[in-house]
User: Fold this.
Amino acid sequence: MDTETPKSPPAPNTDRLETFSDGVFAVAITLLVLGLHVSAPPGGLAHALGNEWPHYATYVVSFLTIGIIWMNHHAQFDRIDHADRPLMVLNLLLLMFVTLIPFPTGLLANYLHAGADEHVAAAVYAGTLLAMSIAFFSTYLWAARRKLFAAWVGEQHVGYLMRRNGAGLLVYAIAIGVAFASASVSLVLCGLVALFYLYPGRAVAAR
Assistant:
């Protein structure tokens, strides 16, 4: 009687993870627009619109941030060949913070230039983005440790990706401290991080 050696099931690919993530990103970025509103007496619309500039500024920074996270998430899972369960959990953690971004966005928009509270709101905003960035960095860290990257991604490039993603952590941490001196400057720093990651970075080096 012939017996077959039990085989391990193939490692799951990232298709469903990416599809689910895309849906969550779409919901989060759509929720941002719900924070835009204006109420004005007759003849006062132009002035009321001008007073809403904190909402426009935070909306732009948060929209760019979520959009660029989505772009880099897409690039990340082009490089990651397969996903294990811990990577899925880390991705869920990332998505949790992504969906949280509309809350501190509205908080900062409402309290910007509102005295002491604006510093707390700016710190909460930068802190949320720092937590999101840590979660994103953790997915790269886990993928590197468990060798989940595709064969065509060289180890040297993995190191470059780790350093590049770690840079944002530092700036977000600085933005939290700066928030207690200037909420506006803290918001600008967060926007600069988004612009930094808009640039795709160095091309993949051959193994």
Observations:
- The CA atoms of residues 27 and 99 lie 8 Å apart.
- The chain is about 70% helix and 0% strand.
- The two ends are 45 Å apart (CA to CA).
- Residues 57-198 form one domain.
